[in-house]
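Revision sheet: structure tokens.
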Amino acid sequence: MSNVFASYISEVLNIPQKSVNATIKLLDDGATIPFISRYRKEATGMLDEVAVHKIYTKYEACKNLANRKETIIEAIKEKGALTPELLRRIEDTRDSATLEDIYLPFKTRRRTRAQIATERGLEPLAKIIMTQKAESLQQAVSRLTKHNDIFSEQDAIDGACDIVAEWISESEKARSIVRAKFMRNAVISAKVISGKESEGKNYETYFDFSSSLRQCSSHRLLAILRGEKEGILKTSIAIDDDEMITRLNRMFIKDYCTDCCSKLLNCTIKDAYRRLIKPSIITETLAAAKAKADDAAINLFADNARQLLLAPPLGHKRVMAIDPGFRTGCKIVCLDEQGSLLCHDVIFPHPPNNDFHGSAFKVSTLINKFKIEAIAVGNGTAARETEKFLAQARLNISVPVISVNESGASIYSASEIARKEFPNEDITVRGAVSIGRRLIDPLAELVKIDPKSIGVGQYQHDVDQSKLKEALTYTVESCVNTVGVDVNTASCELLSYVSGIGQALASNIVSYRNAHGPFKSRKELMNVPRMGEKAFQQSAGFLRIPNAENILDNTAVHPERYELAHTIATDNGMDIAALVRNETALQQIDITPYITKETGLPTLTDIILELKKPGRDPRLTDKEDANIPQFDQKIKDINDIRPGMELQGIVNNITAFGCFVDIGIHENGLVHISQLSDRFVSNPAEIVNINQHVNTKVIDVDYKRGRIALTMRNVQQP
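Predicted:
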């Protein structure tokens, strides 16, 4: 069966079947996607993580379809209706919709009008109508009703037509024709429900909306469906019904059919289409369009989350984190290089207290006492005012002030994870700690909260939640394994995303570390309860042990290649410690003699790269300077903004229709996709990234609705 799947997957993804076969075999053997793409390049033909993930997704879909086929075959077999031809059609089907069409006539359903008519003995009459034998129709009707007081001739004909309507609705060909028409030509319309205009002002764009469903963008469709769910909009999906009925008439009504049968069948076809086929196909079509919109929104969300998770870390520095506020003050925490809490306090530099000097003295004292190297300021309420206070406080030490996205910090602060970390601190302290740790290492901190809560993406609560969870879990796993994890400092949550580990084993690793002290080698991991050979193989290459006796334990070189690395070093007249970071020696090594069937050029190249820069952090490659944009000090709220103003800001969310930019006030500005560049842009991610600093110009302000339209066209970028 796997070979059949591989052939299909190879065809669909345009990937060599040999590579697909190898990937499927590794997946069946329990290998993870990160492990396959990083350490089995020779087997897969150098497939990257994206390709391996696509194969995995298609393979799972194939297995699910195969399981559904087995269920259907058993159900039909139990009814005694499985024929060799039907079995062949089921087994050859690759499309789930077609499979369900084949199964439809055999489904056990609720009691229908057609079933009632069949129980009353009207199926023979229905067959006469369906075969269009007009000469025997009246005779059959008369025979049924002559000595029957239960129903009249018209009742008999109506009941027989109900049976015929159900047969027509179960016709695979008829459903396929209608489905294809809806997929190509369906129009979705939305109208505001009378009296909901004020309540639904956010959906004003869709108060009188109509669009081809096929061309309706992801964000529009999800917005319409949300508006319908909230009782603001009434939606409909339609095609040219008359044209569709005409096509069905041509399909079912024979040329020689008499006027009597023709009229009867015409009415029956209309009934079958309007009552049975159309509602079912509309549900299917909308579900397919929703699934497509979900996929687009989920992919966008995952891409944004990846950018946020892979944001450059400040690194092991002492940080002061400030969670800004007005009335309740600004919560301050000081953290050491590992993110451990040193102290916490509160300052009140803003109204109504206005304790500027006392707050400045306290901040300055804490900076000196704990040798603070950076200040992280949450970007929520009072953020801009707090940054201005810090700039004016004239601290006697030069410390960079960095704005940190605090989305989800409140969720973390109230979580079980936070309570375990800080059982004696309140939620305000925990939230401030999270802000500071996000600066030290965004990835390590953000994995502690549901990825849906990190403040990027669109309509995340409207899409298929299981798909969203699967996509975001994969994204987090990909990011964690791309970076690697220090096994001696990582939290249980971070470790759980490492290839081959999971929540239970991660908990065991932390417990062992707490009981026995830091791990001294990767080999020591084998002492952890439930760390078997397979789990060790899948995880070891992604776990780092700084200051280990074996320097390779702090690299992405897998333990299964240690012997090879030592051989390369010995052959070149030095030990492994002397070879590491020795770029001159490494560049002169000829790796071709070490190529074998199991170890090819890709693996050898990766080993040399790791020896050049052991323990390197891929997030630091394109690290930007830690600074904040220079917000216009004259602008305090949306009422100060006028069209034509040029404003600096930070991209804090990317959607299908543009990007949102933090311009230093409560409201974010929107740069529509058409305003991102002078050239055509199909995907905003081509132009901007999360946390990118941009220069913009205001083109419109809707003060009542709190909306600011910006442009980046013809604006010099930083």
